[in-house]
Design a protein that fits this description.
alpha/beta, Udp-n-acetylmuramoylalanyl-d-glutamate--2,6- Diaminopimelate Ligase, Chain: A, domain 1, UDP N-Acetylglucosamine Acyltransferase, domain 1, 2 domains, ten-stranded mixed beta sheet, eight-stranded parallel beta sheet, 3 helices, Trans_hexapeptide_repeat, UDP-3-O-(3-hydroxymyristoyl)glucosamine N-acyltransferase, Hexapep
């Protein structure tokens, strides 16, 4: 695909190619992205996976030395998602994966399972579970009653002061021996090349939400009523306590311990222990709490 397939020639500075869509830091092969500020543009220009960029006119001067495709519009984000919608509606966002059900799988009669999904060997799908398109579940998983895998999350663009919802066209990948408890929700990614992931042997608690493009590593425990927002990265072996919120686009390292009720808004290094709203070092937080009791 080329920019000129979707945009007027007068908007095209360099007619680039693209095979996939994503954000400025996405990986893939010939990715189209959008940038509405210099920070994201610099990231995209340095990213070898990005082949074409939609920008505002005032950013053009910063692309002089680039050979990437460049398209100029007044609203790069809206233009990008208009192209995305065209591709999605015409089934041009390809997902090259096998669908089906493995051996010795137990699916409750009341579960709803898409034909465009995969469930691995020895997995159990309980009552009233909904598994939507392009959800890929590994071996030995247990999905408890009422869980929903592969639904859409909140994503929109504004046009003429109205909210226009953007449907998701991506993937959910569940590892082996994963447990997802009752009424948990795992949102599919927006783009096929950036799946929402839950790693092997992780446990997702009751009524917890995992947002689009979020990645939960191996052997994690995300307890009940938590939110892991879009594109948050949770390292292997981490624990997220009950009713905690992990903000979008942040990274928790390996073996992080987030205490119950925390609201985490910045990255946490390997082995970090945080608590509070907003979350901070747990030991310091406890000291501050007891100081306030005097």
């Amino acid at each position: 695909m080329q920019l000129s397939d979707y945009m007027p020639l007068e908007n095209i500075h360099i007619n680039g190619i693209f095979n996939e869509l994503g954000y400025s830091d996405s990986t893939g092969r010939h990715v189209l992205t959008f940038c509405d500020n210099l920070n994201y543009l610099n990231i995209a220009l340095k990213n070898d996976s990005i082949s074409s960029i939609i920008i505002k006119k005032d950013l053009l001067e910063y692309t002089i030395d680039s050979k990437k495709g460049i398209c100029i519009t007044e609203e790069p984000r809206n233009t990008f998602f208009e192209i995305y919608n065209l591709l999605r509606e015409n089934n041009l966002l390809n997902i090259n994966r096998d669908y089906g059900v493995g051996s010795n799988v137990n699916i409750a009669p009341t579960a709803i399972v898409s034909d465009k999904s995969y469930i691995g060997n020895n997995s159990v799908i309980s009552d009233n579970v909904i598994i939507k398109d392009n959800v890929f579940i590994g071996n030995g998983c247990f999905i408890d009653a009422g869980a929903i895998l592969g639904n859409d999350g909140v994503l929109y663009m504004e046009k003429e002061k109205n909210n226009i919802f953007i449907r998701h066209a991506g993937v959910v990948t569940i590892g082996n021996n994963v447990t997802i408890l009752s009424n948990a929700v795992v949102v599919k990614s927006v783009f096929p090349n950036m799946p929402t992931k839950i790693g092997d042997y992780s446990i997702i608690g009751i009524s917890t939400t995992i947002g689009h493009e979020a990645v939960v590593g191996k052997n994690c425990r995300v307890l009940g009523n938590c939110v892991v927002a879009k594109n948050a990265q949770v390292g292997d072996g981490s624990i997220i306590g009950t009713s905690s919120v992990i903000r979008e686009n942040i990274t928790l390292g390996k073996n992080v311990d987030v205490k119950a009720g925390s609201v985490v808004i910045k990255d946490v290094k390997d082995g970090g222990v945080v608590s509070g709203n907003f979350a901070m070092n747990h030991s310091l937080n406890v000291k501050n709490y007891f100081k306030g009791q005097k």
